């Protein structure tokens, strides 16, 4: 998987102004559940022919960006959490045990 590290306000602004679909994975590097979710996303990506960007936000290093994501897309902060966004609209978000990778893949391939 070619993660795009999300670590600047400028990147966040570009995502917010874009008309392209992107996934944002909010990841806590010290959380076992988050690490399992990240590995599952990587396995999903390895078997998928996707053309959307997947951003990785390290919550421990960039918590203010996570707060900004929650505010901009009107979602509650969670970790781990995945959002599918298109510009100013949050199309999908899930966290913890609600992250279902087959559902995410179906959703992204349908867009």
Describe this structure in words.
This protein is α/β, with parallel strands linked by helices. It has one domain: 3-Layer(aba) Sandwich (Glutaredoxin). The protein is 40% helix and 25% strand. It has four helices and five strands; from the N terminus they run βαβαβαββα. The protein has a five-stranded mixed beta sheet with strand order 1-3-2-4-5, with helices on both faces. A hairpin with a 2-residue loop joins strand 4 and strand 5. The two termini are 20 Å apart.
The number of distinct structural domains comes to 1
Strand pairing plus helix content: what structural class? Answer: alpha/beta
CATH topology: Glutaredoxin
Q: Which percent bin holds the helix content?
A: 25-40%
Overview in brief:
This protein has 111 residues and is of the alpha/beta class. The protein has helices spanning 9-17, 32-46, 63-72, 101-110; strands spanning 4-5, 21-27, 53-58, 81-86, 89-95.
Present the secondary structure layout.
Layout: E1 4-5, H1 9-17, E2 21-27, H2 32-46, E3 53-58, H3 63-72, E4 81-86, E5 89-95, H4 101-110
Parallel strand pairs: 1-3, 2-3
Antiparallel strand pairs: 2-4, 4-5
